[in-house]
Structures are given as C-alpha cells and as structure tokens.
Specification:
This protein is about 45% helix and about 25% strand. It is of the alpha/beta class. It has three domains: about 80 residues, Orthogonal Bundle (Arc Repressor Mutant, subunit A); about 100 residues, Periplasmic binding protein-like II (D-Maltodextrin-Binding Protein, domain 2), CATH 3.40.190; about 100 residues, D-Maltodextrin-Binding Protein, domain 2 (3-Layer(aba) Sandwich). Strands 3, 4, 5, 6, 7, 8, 9, 10 and 11 form a nine-stranded mixed sheet that branches. Strands 1-2 form a two-stranded antiparallel ribbon. Helix 8 links the parallel strand 7 and strand 8. Helix 1 packs across helix 2. The protein is rod-shaped. The two termini are about 55 Å apart. GO terms for molecular function: DNA-binding transcription factor activity; transcription cis-regulatory region binding.
C-alpha cells in the first residue's frame, strides 16, 4: 500500500481544496491530482464529488477516509516507536553474566544504564560462562560479562575488562588464618567448597587440583553467596574469586604463586549484533569500569 497516496488523500479531505493540499504538502497541484486519480484506479471507486465549495467525499470515499486515517495514525506511531527505539527511548537490552562478574559489576552497571534510559526494559540472565557464551552465539542475549573459560568462540567479540585470581579463602577463625604461607599439599585434609564444575571457576579449580595431584573432599555449590556463607562457619575452605571475597571482613585468603589460577574477565557480544544506543552506552560504562580498575 502506498502511504504517500493515502497521505495526499487525507490532506485533500481535510483541506477540501487541491491548491491548499499542494501547498500543505509541498507538492504541485498536478502531482496531488495524479495521486488521487491513482488511488481511485487502485480501488476502482470514485472518491470525491467536486462543487463550488471544493472537494466532497462520496460514500466510498467516506469509508476509505475512515480506514486511511487509522492507518495513518498507526504508521505515525510506528515511525515514532522506531525512532524512539533507535534513540534508546524504548525497547530492551538483554544482558548476561557468569556468577562472579554478575555480583561484582552488574548492579552498578545496570543502575547507571537505567538512569540514562529509564524507559527501556533491562534483563539480566546469570548463568555459567559457557552457557552465557552459548546464548550470545544464538543472539538470545545482547552482551555479557564472563570469566574466561580457556575457549573463545570465533563469532563472538571478547574485550578484556580486568583480571582476577582464584585464591584459597577461609574464615578468620580457621586454622589457616594468620599463616604466612601454605603449601598446596596442606589442602589434602580439608573440605573444599567449589562453584559447580560447569562454571568457569569450577573448571579452573578442577583443572588446578588435577595438575597438583590433590585428593580432597569437595562440595560443589551453585551459589557463590552460599560458598561465602559456608566459609563463615570456619570448617571449610574454598577456591574462589579474589575480587569477590577481598571485601568480606570475616574472611581471609592465601594466594598461590601459580599463574594458572589467574584469568581474565571479558565483555562479550556477537560480531553481527546491531549496535543500539543503549548497547553503545552500556559498552562505554564497561570501558569506564575497566579504566578505573586497571
């Protein structure tokens, strides 16, 4: 359907004069006449009667005007919605994060994004890093913050934000507290809490324990906050993100001199993602975060 023809038709109905319609739309009078004739040919009906008072609608013209007006309003609303979406005035942004970045960074980032774009819908999906990467590959999410897993998908863009290290954490009431150093073999008689093995932290922990040939009782937990809570009881230790627990006053930690326990946190998105204004602003927030931490 030619919306320009309908627009000319609506204007002629409301002005009742060909010259007034031409002036209003910035068209020549013959062009207005051409559009009206073309519209009549399209539908096979007569739209106007002419008399000394100008153009008057036929019954068929009244019907067309009724629906043309509705279509015009819908089209105007559509154009405004698209423009608002491009400007970040509506729409949505779907974020993803693995456990550690979700707790460390997402609350502040989402707060600032919502302050700038209060009308867009923001959602956050917290899953393991491999699951977030899978959802980004299928473009079910717009972008995500994940701990590195050792694998990189070629269709995803990985921008490093900062580094983190897995440390051995425990309560300040634990026997390890206050020790200057700790041998890796000292873990053999400890109950070790780890994030589920499908997570990046769990994967790194499992690989490191295997390399060290350590056999220890291991408890897998889905929630990082649950691990922190269980550490407070003083009976267990955990391999966990240093950034996540260094502000926990009731916990202490020991760093092993092992580069294998250090990993990057990445900002990740699909190479073919359409870059909206809210996404671009979120990316700027992440870059500012990176500059502030490094």
């Amino acid at each position: 359907m030619n919306t320009q023809k309908l627009h000319v038709f609506i204007s002629l109905v409301e002005t009742k004069k060909m010259t007034d319609t031409a002036n209003l739309l910035g068209l020549s009078t013959p062009t207005v006449s051409f559009h009206i004739k073309s519209l009549e040919d399209d539908y096979g009906i007569k739209l106007f009667r002419t008399n000394a008072g100008g153009y008057r609608l036929t019954d068929a013209g009244e019907m067309l005007y009724h629906y043309a007006k509705q279509l015009s309003q819908i089209n105007d609303a559509l154009e405004k919605s698209v423009e608002d979406y491009k400007n970040g005035e509506n729409g949505s942004i779907k974020l993803g994060a693995s456990g550690v970045p979700a707790q460390l960074f997402m609350p502040e980032l989402i707060h600032q994004l919502a302050e700038r774009y209060p009308r867009i819908k923001v959602s956050l999906d917290v899953k393991t890093a491999p699951e977030i990467e899978r959802r980004l590959l299928f473009q079910e999410l717009d972008c995500g913050l994940v701990m590195e897993t050792g694998n990189k998908e070629p269709d995803l863009v990985y921008e490093p934000i900062t580094s983190d290290k897995i440390v051995l954490a425990f309560s300040k009431t634990h026997p390890f507290a206050g020790k200057d150093g700790l041998g890796e073999s000292d873990l053999s008689d400890q109950t070790l809490l780890v994030h589920r093995l499908s997570s990046s932290t769990g994967h790194f922990s499992k690989s490191w324990l295997k390399e060290q040939k350590l056999q220890t009782e291991m408890i897998q937990l889905d929630s990082v906050s649950t691990i922190i809570k269980m550490l407070s009881y003083g009976k267990a230790v955990a391999l966990i993100s240093k950034r996540l627990i260094e502000k926990e006053d009731h916990l202490a930690y020991i760093e092993f001199q092992n580069q294998d326990l250090e990993r990057q946190i990445h900002f990740v998105y699909h190479r073919n993602l359409w870059i909206s204004d809210p996404f671009r602003y979120f990316q700027e927030l992440v870059l500012e975060l990176m500059e502030g931490m490094n």
